[in-house]
Write a structure and sequence with these properties.
There is one protein chain. By secondary structure, the protein is an alpha+beta fold. The protein has one domain (14-235): GHMP Kinase, N-terminal domain (Ribosomal Protein S5, domain 2). The chain contains six helices and nine strands; from the N terminus they run ββββαααβαββαββα. The strands form two sheets. A five-stranded mixed sheet has the order 1-2-3-5-4. It has a four-stranded antiparallel sheet with strand order 7-6-8-9, sandwiched between helices. Helix 4 (125-146) runs parallel beside helix 6 (211-236). The radius of gyration is 18 Å and the shape is globular. The N and C termini lie far apart (36 Å). Homohexameric ring arranged as a trimer of dimers. This is Ribonuclease PH. Residues 10-140, 159-223 form the Exoribonuclease phosphorolytic domain. Its EC number is 2.7.7.56. Phosphate binds at residues 86, 124-126.
């Protein structure tokens, strides 16, 4: 029995509300259970200097967690004077994931920055950030297309992510914190809407896992991402 009472393959309730902020070209608030992330996308009419003259655009991301997103207060990283290693790793992951679904030639020499701010954390914040970040990116790109700034759609496919793991000996989908903290194996699966893998992060957290268990987790992830893509479609329809 999972702590939440969910079935092994059952995701937490998903909610994606768009148009959350006034100024960002694209924005949404994604809620996956008690994990809530504000995602915004900002269009900058110039690409990074290393892409100057290439005709290619760029999508990057920044990630942060509010001090009381967790059950105890975490000091702001700005107050510490530097980002933590976890933050840097997660925002690089978000950027890589989103770029995998982008035709950078169609985007042209401009940059879109996706900011993911965790308001409340209960496991799976990086996965929620990627899933919500794509929605914010989609809304920003829609504005470029409407303005005629892009001739063709730079977004080639949906991108979404889900965590799956081995909890109490059973493969389960969409881990919350209670499960994540006790999981024998923890994995993050990033996929396209067509079911192609972008990145898989899996590690044993005290108990090794078999190839058969990994396959079962991939099956759960594939079904879970398909559900998340449907939520993205509903939010951006």
């Amino acid at each position: 029995m999972r702590p939440s009472g969910r079935e092994l393959s059952e995701l937490r309730p998903i909610s994606i509300e768009t148009g959350i902020t006034k100024h960002a070209e694209g924005s949404c608030l994604i809620k996956m259970g008690d994990t809530h992330v504000l995602c915004t996308a900002t269009i900058e009419d110039r690409a990074p200097s290393f892409l100057k003259g290439t005709g290619l655009g760029w999508v990057t991301a920044e990630y942060g967690m509010l001090p009381r997103a967790t059950n105890t207060r975490n000091r702001r990283e700005a107050a510490a004077g530097k980002q933590g290693g976890r933050t840097v790793e997660i925002q690089r992951l978000i950027g890589r994931a989103l770029r995998a679904g982008v035709d950078r030639s169609a985007l042209g020499e401009r940059q879109i920055v996706v900011d993911c701010d965790v308001i409340q954390a209960d496991g799976g914040t990086r996965c929620a950030s990627i899933t919500g970040g794509w929605v914010a990116l989609r809304l920003a790109v829609n504005k470029l297309l409407k303005a005629g700034a892009c001739v063709s759609d730079p977004l080639m496919d949906h991108v979404a992510a889900i965590s799956c793991g081995i909890y109490a000996g059973q493969p389960v989908a969409d881990l919350d914190y209670a499960e994540d903290s006790e999981a024998g194996t923890d994995g993050n699966f990033i996929m396209t809407g067509s079911g192609k893998l972008i990145e898989v992060q899996m590690s044993a957290e005290g108990a090794t896992f078999s190839r058969d268990q990994m396959t079962r987790l991939l099956d759960l992830a594939e079904a879970g991402v398909a559900r998340l893509v449907e939520a993205q479609k509903d939010a951006t329809a």
